[in-house]
Amino acid sequence: MEREEILRNVPIFADLERKHLKRLAKLMVPRDFKAGDTIVKEKDQPAGFFVIASGKVEVVREAEGGSPQVLNQLGTGDFFGEMALFEGFPRSATVRALEDTECLAITRWDFLAELSSHAEVAVAVLKTVVHRLRDIEARLTE
Ligand code: CMP
Predict the structure, then answer these.
(1) How far, in Å, CA of 68 to CA of 45, rounded?
(2) What is the reported pTM?
């Protein structure tokens, strides 16, 4: 699938005009991972933001003295890597491919510039982040 076509199906980019999608598609680089590959490692310095074009990943947090905890699974159209980019902190969790996974990656600089110039993308990212927070809270009170 063409990069632009992939991006069109990503919810956070759904409201972008065609010319902006085209520009974004040029900024995003395809990155392929095999099942079992670590894509992002907890505590590493962040370099980029990832959108899943196809495949599935798990988000895992290491626990001191305990076994690692699976926080979530993400699939086609989902994104990850935004937290460390927003905060300027190291990665909050490890993201590992559960199956062969194709991502589109964008650098921190380009991602932040994108959010600054397109409020609709920033709001869509924020909505998803808040939704993930609600999920965590719901699980804590289960
Ligand atoms: P970042 O901290 O840059 O790197 C790890 C990523 O995992 C993080 O950004 C989020 O994109 C993602 N992540 C962390 N916690 C969760 C969660 N509870 N649900 C979904 N994704 C998460």
Answers:
(1) 20
(2) 0.93
